[in-house]
Amino acid sequence: MRCLRTIAHIKWQEHVPNTAVFKRCCINGMEALLQMSQLRWCGHVIRMDNSRIPKQTFYGQLHHGSRRPGGQHKRYKDRLKDTLKQCEITPSDLESLARDRTTWRTTCRNAVQSFEEKRVDHLVAKRQLLMTEPPLPGTFRCSTCGRMCQSRIGLFSQNRTHRS
Predict the structure, then answer these.
(1) Which are the contacts of 80, defined by CB distance < 8 A and separation ≥ 6?
(2) 122 and 44 share a domain?
(3) pLDDT in tens, 36-46
(4) Model confidence at 135, in pLDDT bands (50, 70, 90)?
(5) Which long-range CB contacts under 8 A does 47-50 form with residues at least 24 apart?
(6) Is 120 left (phi over 0), alpha (psi -120 to 50) or beta?
(7) Do 128 and 158 share a domain, yes or no?
(8) In terms of pTM, does the model score above 0.90?
(9) Mean pLDDT, residues 113-119
(10) Are both 109 and 143 inside the same structural domain?
């Protein structure tokens, strides 16, 4: 984010939210980029020959063995299921969609784009809610930007950033 802000000539004193920085730079967030690459790799593995090691590993299951007690480490398949759920792709349709490369690419692009739009809308709504809710007792709101400060001296310091 610091590099993006530097490239876009956005100073940290301006208090520009990350969603606005992404919009100004015309790029998606890191989570969307990771989801896109994960879905593309999954489609690639599904289209592979059955004799290829990545496909055997992807579809393979252990016949015996136990997992250690406590919270389990998430596997690639677990993360993929989460990504499919977030992108609203049903796991039962995964193989049929991934068989055709062009269909899979457009499906992935549209699903990740809709996920990113929902995520940004949620963050904007969350920020608006924070800006509109009444201040708690003992907190002070900046009249220029609406930022909440914990003390009067903090509000004074916040107001000084608007002068420059």
Answers:
(1) 38, 42
(2) yes
(3) 999 999 999 99
(4) low
(5) 47/98, 47/99, 47/101
(6) alpha
(7) no
(8) no
(9) 94
(10) no
Residues 84-89 have a mean pLDDT of: 93
Q: Is 133 left (phi over 0), alpha (psi -120 to 50) or beta?
A: beta
Please tell me the distance from the alpha carbon of residue 146 to that of residue 127, in angstroms, as a whole number: 11
Q: Are residues 89 and 124 in the same domain?
A: yes
Contacts of 91 (CB under 8 A, 6+ apart): 81, 84
Task: Please tell me the distance from the alpha carbon of residue 139 to that of residue 145, in angstroms, as a whole number.
Answer: 15
Which amino acid is present at 142? C
Token pair 């490369």 is at which residue?
101
- Domains identified in the chain, total number: 2
Task: Give the C-alpha separation, 30 to 33, whole Å.
Answer: 5
Distance CA 33, CA 44 (A): 17
Is residue 13 one of the residues assigned to a domain? no
Residue type present at position 124: V
Domain that holds residue 102: 30-53+76-133
